[in-house]
Amino acid sequence: MCLAVPARIESLEAGEQAVIDVGGIRKRVSVALVEGVAPGDWVIVHVGYALARLDPEAAAETLAAMAAAGLEPGTLA
Amino acid sequence: MKFVDEFRDRDLGQGLAAAIAREAKPERLYQFMEFCGGHTHAISRYGVTDLLPANVRMVHGPGCPVCVLPIGRVDLAIDLALGRGVILCSYGDTLRVPASAGRSLLKAKAAGGDVRMVYSAADALRIARDNPQREVVFLAIGFETTTPPTALVIREAHATGVANFSVLCNHVLTPAAIVNILQSPEVRDLGTVPLDGFVGPAHVSSIIGTRPYEFFAEEFRKPVVVAGFEPLDVMQAILMLVRQVNEGRAEVENQFSRVVDRDGNRRAQAIVAEVFELRREFEWRGLGTVPYSALAIRATFAAHDAERRFGLEYRAVPDNKACECGAILRGVKRPVECKLFGGACTPETPMGSCMVSSEGACAAHYSYGRFRDRVPATPVVA
Ligand code: SF4
After folding, report:
1. Global pTM?
2. How much is the ipTM here?
3. Does residue A76 lie within any of the structural domains?
4. I need a labelling partner for B49 at 20 to 30 A (CA). Which of A36, B97, B234, B277 fits?
5. Which tens digits make up the pLDDT trace of B86-115?
């Protein structure tokens, strides 16, 4: 129910709508709930609405921490 | 899919599993509750439990909006569809929720009710615009994740004068439910599972932020780690919880920093506050009546509130006596401990709500894990 998928904003349209790319599929969603998004930004989409931004740098850091935890005992996650 | 597949990587998962096994102290038991159905689903589907040492256990929580929707509220929707001739719009998950006398919205549709599945709240508003001569009611359910879209369509219906559109609001609040699990009168009857920490909600937290959990960490001395819904997110959160327990810390940590911050989505919060107010109490299937745990539509938008518009009166209906959803939603019992599990109650013929949504503890367990149950039952402290 609370599932939301990562998507990239392709273009902004009138009426706080945007065309997004979700895993290669284009869809139109509302961006009325997120402030100041621009084409190229990543967001998470739930029931036809972008809910929040997704920060690619933070994602990379999380993956790096996971890798580190698996290798060296005592590394901070 | 980018930002999904990376968080399902097998090697990283094995590394995290090794780290958890290395750091969990063999002499103690770790019991963590994953509040959200999304986590329950990920844990069952990807077999996360199999990657954990025997002394690190996950207890399923009540965070599945379909599972906590009480019979009496589904009855209201069915009565609107059958008795008042409205077009009843709803997210697909709610259609099969068992209501009283063996009814469901799906059966109401088969009996001639105009019940329509929508993907988005905006679709329901569109149906109202397309059918100005009919009353259109949107059965709204969900936690904080799903509330802002509902708020937006109510505001839009109000602003643009879509007079035939109303919402039967069942939006509920996560923090209130967590408090209820930790301290409520029912805990005395059902007993309670000693919990060492919580895996906190993913997308709910993108809206409300991590700040609301700081209270639990302080008040109940329970660590909370907000985590994403992919299997590696859950595993990393478990590792972070193990570390907090080992170090005697009870803090709020954020594993899902790619989406969540401390403050959440302020714009969404403002829209929700504009349209909704707190209900004094609300019944949750499985948890019973929980104070200040749900939202109602503000008087300004009364014309779009189905409860006011149709003079609906809520009547509580008890669950099937044999259904153990109540104890399961509190983590006190596991699905296999219900006599109906897998026999009378399956995803095709759900008797209780935990078997309806794929995020429900019973359905997730039935679909992905019911033959792997060999661990002893969770100890219960009365
Ligand atoms: S198996 Fe069915 S009847 Fe038993 S607790 Fe789960 S949902 Fe309820």
Report:
1. 0.90
2. 0.90
3. no
4. B97
5. 999 999 889 988 898 889 999 999 999 999
